[in-house]
Structures are given as structure tokens and as C-alpha cells.
């Protein structure tokens, strides 16, 4: 495949504005894990090549639990992507994080139950560090960009990732709040884990749509969509600057995450597995 991209944007279709790109094209990519959520839009912005992947497919037709995140991340790896910016609508678990605020989280608490979250199984074992699930280098840059534009941004915070697609019960919401978590959503896992396994920097622009159900107001999909649409303009504005200003020279741990992490002896990894995962592990074997 000849197509390449430097930066990937993953999120809802509302944040994509292909009009900012030149030489726009759509590509269909096959992976050993199946097809990504949809075709990937690629274009140029200055000297950067950018790709957009609609996480839930065009028209938002794929449930969080049904996302083929392995195919999504593997496809971006095949494109040569170095940095992923994930856009995500979230609920707030803190009074001070109001709807329409922006959070650049630095931690994740995983409450998912049924999602494949590794590329490495069936003959290969990889124990990879995941203490800091978001790329600190890219996250810091995005915080600076968002603040310079005057947005109300919280730097850091814990994103609790629930299974969904239902919203929380009141009991769950109150427990998450009592545990000190900041925001709640349904998509950071396994995206962040798989991006780290693929040695791609992963960072998130999380936009608050509601206070979840610990607050006096119930969460309604109408309110979530209304606020998500209001947040889209801010996310687009930040992303345009990110495309231009994010360094592609990476000094973070993400780019070498697999170094020393492949536990299985190289001569014991099945040949077909090596061939299948070559874009991920080739340089480490």
C-alpha cells in the first residue's frame, strides 16, 4: 500500500472537515483483524498528511462494544501514523468540570467487560508497560494549543471507561465520583491499549456533554447530542492547530513500547503469526 499518513484523527464524523485538506481521497484498508469501522479519509494540510477515521462508522452505526478497534489501529499502523488524536464525548464526575469544558486526560480506569484489547495472542505473549496510557508529550502540546485559544481546559484527569451502550446507574455514577474519577466514556479502551502496542502516540480531546447521573439532572441522549454538536467547533479549531504544530519527532516512550516486551522466544513464535503482525513486531525480531 502506497498511502501514508503522519497524524490520525479518530472520532465522530462531526469533527471532520475535509475542506481544510488538499488532495482528499478515501482508502479501504484490510487488516488481519478485519475491516476498520469505515473507509479512511486522507489528505494534505501543509507539509503534513492527515487521516480521519470515523470511530463508529459513518452515520454512527457501530456500538462501542462492537467496535473493531484492532482493525482500526492496525489500519493506522499500516498507514505509518505516528500520532493519534482521539476525540471523545464524555460525562463529568466533578462539579467543576461543566458541560462544554475540555479535558485532556492522563489516566484511564478500565470497566469494560467484553472487548479484545491486545494484538498479541495465539502463540505470542507481550507484557507491555501501560502505566501512562496517554502520550504525555502529545497531551502537553494539545493542552498548550487549547489554552492559547482560550478554551476552558483541564490538564490531566482519569477517564473511567465503561462498557455501555447504556449510561450508568445512579449507584455506579456515585461510586465513580466517590473514587475520584474525573470523566466517564465508552471508547478509550481498547483504543489506547492497542495504540501503545502499535507504538503510536495516543492522546484524547475529551469534551464534556453532561454531569452523568450523580448530578440532579438525568442524562438524556438529546442533551448529550446537543452539547456534543456545540463541542464540535472547539474540537475542530484545536485539531487544525494540532495538525500544524504537533512535532513528528517523538521523544516519548510510546515509539519504543515493545522494546523488551515480547516475552515469547522469537524462534517459538509461529511463522504465520510473525507474518501477520510484521507491521507491529518486525523491527523487534
Give a short summary of the structure:
This protein has 285 residues and is of the alpha/beta class. Helices cover 27% and strands 22% of the residues.
Average pLDDT across residues?
93
CATH architecture of the domain at 88-284: 3-Layer(aba) Sandwich
* CATH class categorisation of the domain at 88-284: Alpha Beta
Q: How does the major sheet shape up? A: 11 strands, mixed
Helix content class: 25-40%
Predict the CATH topology of the domain at 88-284: Rossmann fold
The CATH superfamily of the domain at 88-284 appears as Nucleoside phosphorylase domain
Percent in strands: 15-25%
Q: Looking at the structure, what is the overall shape? A: globular
- Distance between the ends: 22 Å
SSE-based structural type: alpha/beta
Q: Total strand count, please?
A: 11
Computed CA radius of gyration, to the nearest angstrom: 18 Å
Number of helices: 7
The stretches of 5 or more residues where confidence is low (pLDDT under 50) are: none
Give the SSE order as H and E letters. EEEEHEEEHEEHEHEHHH
Short key terms for the protein model shown above:
285 residues, alpha/beta, Rossmann fold, 22% strand
Walk me through what this model shows.
It is a single chain. The protein has 285 residues and is α/β, with parallel strands linked by helices. The protein has helices at 69-78, 136-148, 170-178, 188-197, 221-245, 271-276, 278-281; strands at residues 7-11, 22-27, 40-45, 48-54, 83-92, 102-104, 107-111, 153-155, 158-162, 183-185, 201-210. The protein has a domain at 88-284: Rossmann fold (3-Layer(aba) Sandwich). Strands 1, 2, 3, 4, 5, 6, 7, 8, 9, 10 and 11 form an 11-stranded mixed beta sheet that branches. Helix 1 runs parallel beside helix 4 (188-197) and helix 2 crosses helix 5. The longest helix is centred in the C-terminal third of the chain and has 25 residues, at 221-245. The protein is globular, with a radius of gyration of 18 Å.
